[in-house]
Amino acid sequence: MHFEVLVEDQSGKTALEILLPKILDGRHTVEVHSYKGIGRIPKGLKATSDPRKRILLDQLPKLLSGYGEKFSSYPSDYLASVIVVCDLDSRRLQPFLHELQACLDTCNPAPMTRFCIAIEEGEAWFFGDIPAIKRAYPKAKDKILNSYVNDSICGTWEQLADAITPGGAKKLLKQGWVAVGAEKSQWSAAITPHMDIESNKSPSFIHFRDKIRELTCASEN
Which domains are delineated in the chain? Predict the structure, then answer.
């Protein structure tokens, strides 16, 4: 099976390019596409922003429609799926999922698609494997790491920054969002190689992992 994975930023791409081969076990193909922010699904499901800005949800109706057309031309024995991975941030989960599904429902033909939401942010998946964080950052502050509640709405990336980055989130924010993004990419590159996909405690990571496996199992039957 082939997977086209859409993720909202470079740090997510870095993480998924390491994690997906662990889940897929080399039997399937995958291409991860990063965007420059999440944005929002446009009213009327018609993108109005410049596609060159590469904002994920702004372009999602067009992207899904394009994949639907593309996949429909594939041979019947070649299965492909779109996986949309984005952060929940301050949104409510069920209304957000309904909005995403409504976007997919307008496609004809519609591509096989799964929506996987990191709660609250992608760094929640790192917190689901604290031993991996400690292997990447042996000096990480245990008190902060152990105070995290899996998939809680708490300022997840800031809490991780406070645990592993000198000066914490406050110092990073003073340096600006470019510095924050660069630091997140470093975390992804450092932590994900150590992650055990079977023991991760993040419910949203488990959902992502199991959705991928459900699709691969179906393709092999």
Answer: 2-122+200-220 (3.40.50), 129-194 (no CATH)
